[in-house]
Amino acid sequence: MRDINEYSITEAVVSSMTRCADARLQTILTSLVQHLHAFARDVRLTEDEWSKAIAFLTQVGDITDERRQEFILLSDTLGLSTLVMSQSTGKPASCTESTVFGPFFVDGAPIYHNGDDISNGARGAPCYVKGQVRGADGEAVGNAWIDVWQSDEDGFYDVQRLDDSHASSHRARGRLRTDAEGFFNFRTILAEAYPIPHDGPVGRMLAATGRHPWRPAHLHFRIEAPGFETLITQVFREGDRYLDSDVVFGVRSTLVADWIRHDPGIAPDGRRIEVPWYTLDYDFILNRAQILA
Ligand code: BEZ
Ligand code: FE
Predict the structure, then answer these.
(1) In this structure, are residues 254 and 94 in contact, taking their beta carbons and an 8 Å threshold?
(2) What confidence score (pLDDT) does residue 286 get?
(3) Whose CB among 71, 169, 217, 222 lies 3.0–4.6 Å from 191's, allowing a Cys bridge?
(4) From CA 213, how far away is CA 19, in angstroms rounded?
């Protein structure tokens, strides 16, 4: 194959992959090449612009390490994470909606019991969270594993605080199980709006396109139980100014809930709290796992 030009290049690349042993990989790469080429033709991409794009992607890779995942930020801010997630979850409307996972989940968070305080020293107004995990037919889902994680009042997740050693950095995150009737409850801190990390290439892209880096206040949940699809979602705080301009396009109306403010006084765990404190009551409905015939 010689003398490839701007018109014949697409077919040349596509035909070069016809011996691919993995049919799905071939489908994906063929479509990717076709769309990439169509995009370059559409905008009449110049060599200078393509060099800048490669430099940008290189910076995304360079800044990524075990604490910072700039590729997830890029996917999230370009709406790709939400698109991929939305087209792969075809659950009944009665089930709790999923939303983006984000880059701040960590494996091996501390295990807590119902009633425990998961903040572990993270700063923020006290907040008591409770709810029930059920299936779509109303059945209680006992012994489900709940992972919860959130930022502190300064808008930072523990993993973003570089002054912490790894050993002591599990703050405002944890794992706990629902009781036999599917109920759970824990104490944490109030979720606040925060900007996603924007001191890197993704932040520069946001600034260049006139976008702010903020996410509305939210709590992350991952809920796992045998026989049910794992639910990855977030609960958002009603009234937050960024609910309709979330930088990662993750807000669903059904996931917006009231965090109720209480004056100083006796909290649900019987303690006296001298500052305003909050409660969140939110139930989760899991989808039954599909049984493959
Ligand atoms: C988060 O909510 O933790 C998050 C989601 C997407 C990008 C950045 C942060
Ligand atoms: Fe978050």
Answers:
(1) no
(2) 97
(3) 217
(4) 44
